[in-house]
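quick one, 719 residues, struct below
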Amino acid sequence: MEIILADAAGFCFGVQRALEKTLQTAKENSNGPIYTLGPLIHNPQVVAELEAKGIRVAKQSGDIDTGVVIVRCHGVPPKVIHQLEERELTVVDATCPFVRRAMCWAKQLKDEGYQVVIVGDKSHPEVKAIYGASDETAWIVETPRTINELPVAKRIGVIAQTTQSTANFGACVSQFIGKTEELKAFNTICTATEQRQSSAEEIAAKVDIMVVIGGHNSANTQRLVEVCQTSGAKQTYHIETADQLQSSWFVGVNKVGVTAGASTPNWLIEGVIKRMDEFTEDKTASAQVEEEKQIETVEGEEIVPTEVAEEIVPIVETEPEEEEAMEDYPDVPTPVADTVIKGRVVKISSDEVLVDIGYKSEGHIPTNELGIFGDSKPEDVVAVGDEISVWVISVDDAEGTVMLSKKRADAGVAWEELEAVFEQGSIMEAKVNQTVKGGLLVDVGVRGFIPASQVSRNFVEELEKYVGQTLKLKIVELDRQKNNVVFSHKAVLDEEYANAKEEAFSQLEEKSIVEGVVRRLTDFGAFVDIGNGVEGLLHVSEMAHGRVKHPSDVLSEGDQIKVMVLGVDKERERISLGLKQTLANPWDSINERYQVSDTVTGTVTRVVDFGAFVKLEEGVEGLIHISQLSHRHIAKADEVVASDDQVDVKIISLDPKARRIGLSIKELEPKPEQAVAKPGGAGKPRGQNRQKQPMEFNSGGNEEMTTTLGDMFGDLFKK
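---
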């Protein structure tokens, strides 16, 4: 069973734009909840995914009190946006540019005095938006039959719902001819809609059954169903997901055509094709390759009913030099379809490229056959004067028209190169064009896919950062018949890491200084990349000459530092690093800054049973023994000092070799016998910190008492 996928199927520009705008808003939002005013697009699966990301659907503007409001792809009447802005809500307009254009024409026609007529479904949100742009004065018609029931108007302006069929729009415009004095019509049908309908019609005429994928509430998908039902297919099935397929549909079927609405994501289409492929025993048919061989592309041609064209489309007369008969080219060979030829680019426009192929007329490459990726333009792919290889799609010898494809010619060359790379296990480079569900897309002449699990050696949360980057890749899966190529960047990184690790363990020497980048911080240290992903452990005890509470007090992820290699364990594949070894040791010059009997200020870092440690500078701590905290008896050091206290201390000993400094608070305080008590309490002696004042009392006379034995030793008798 052959499965033929339409060239034009799935997300259109407007839907893709709306989805990207919504996801970007969700990423950057800091203004509260996010709502879409109605479903962003008419696809339940995509809407469900957005809801899983916290993007809610509001049925009407009154349901939203705060946050961000995203105007969906179909647009809303202008007055609704004004109401939202008056309520100080943040509005993000994701209206499709084609819908916006139709709304602008509706307003302009109304302002110019025309009676606006909209050809479309009056219950569709897009039509409601266009109707609102006409100040709610437009007439809405669905078929030519309803036009006879309308009142008479002297000036009529007709526009279309963007998802209308060209045939229905043309028939409606024709119905107005002769019924009004002045008729103006604007074909506002989206080009993507026209392309999908034309492509679906062409395929439906060549297959046994058609499968149309898309939301049941999607107008453009419904139009595709109608087109397929009237274009030759014996049966047309409209589904939303692969689960709705039934194997009984394909019994005895030789050819199946597949198309999808403009709001259907690629992953749904791929899922349906994969499921259909499981229904057939012959899995050698390539959907895209067979399609390219059997279908003559008609995308890009505007279909206008003959009767309308005769009435409202001006006739462009042919210049004399263009009226050349075929007999003027008796010796010019006719290009052969399904072959690759060479030509020279002679003209580039927004919708096609003309190529001189040595025939009586230039060949035409529609933009969809150029191999344009993402937001690229034709001039980004080719330039005037370029010699390129092209695939001949079709030849109309009578008209002298040759349709060409650059992407199909490139694909043939690309597959040969890919097969050689895959067979040799070589590494190739490719630029990332865009992100999709579950990974990245690259263009290597054909579309290549990098699963998210194959992008990096570690989990990657933000795939968008890779867009525009050129990555080294290895092919992990290749199937030309199914047009499937899967790449891995992780495989290249793993190989580079293995080589770098082997080199590191064979060349690293203890006490050597190397440069590295801090990759991860933990409670016990930091992992430092010393080259090509090879990491060593920098323990917290090796970060500074002083005490470090947590690695984040010294380092941050991404810091570039120099470290010393302290040890290399090849068997356990571990590398120990030190940072303090690369820094000046403050103890080496301690005598230059401190002397015994100096009074200095420091910060209490720890209080222990036998005293308190005081930080004098980074990497230098001294000890106040409990006996040096006060002249009075102290049971616990925290009676006098606490962590983070700023204290004045006297240096009573200094041993640079042992890296010890003895400190004293007591030495800065007057001795008890020197203390002079004052009636009513004395002031706090200099240098005394958290110590209580000596107890004073008056027994009724003038005799003053100082510190007593009870004050000094009374706590010893407490149980």
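The chain has 15 helices and 32 strands.
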